[in-house]
Amino acid sequence: MANPNAPRRRFYVRRKFCRFCADPNLKISYRNVDILRQFITDRGKIIPRRISGNCARHQRQLTLAIKRARHLALLPYTTVGHE
């Protein structure tokens, strides 16, 4: 149990920002697999916007691009679990 008389430690929370709003040259496309991979977990799930920091508009575009890339077998739907 923490000491109630100890000074409170403040921690710095880094501000999340939308990478696609910050850099207009960065395009969301189902063909750009390198960028899309940064927004899926090692299990193949799409990272939610509260974690990734994307704005709602770009998160919708990103989700659609990931689903299209999965359909064309450019990205995995899931990982094969050999445990």
Architecture overview:
With about 80 residues, this protein is an all-alpha fold. The protein has a domain at about 20-70: Ribosomal protein S18 (30s Ribosomal Protein S18), CATH 4.10.640. It is about 35% helix and about 0% strand. The protein contains four helices and no strands. The chain has helices at about 20, 35, 50, 55-70. It is elongated. It starts with 18 loop residues before the first helix and ends in a 12-residue tail after the last helix. The relative contact order is 0.19. The model has no long low-confidence stretch (mean pLDDT about 90).
Lay out the secondary structure.
Elements: H1 19-22, H2 33-37, H3 49-52, H4 56-71
In short:
The protein has a domain of 53 residues: Ribosomal protein S18 (30s Ribosomal Protein S18), CATH 4.10.640. By secondary structure, the chain is mainly α.
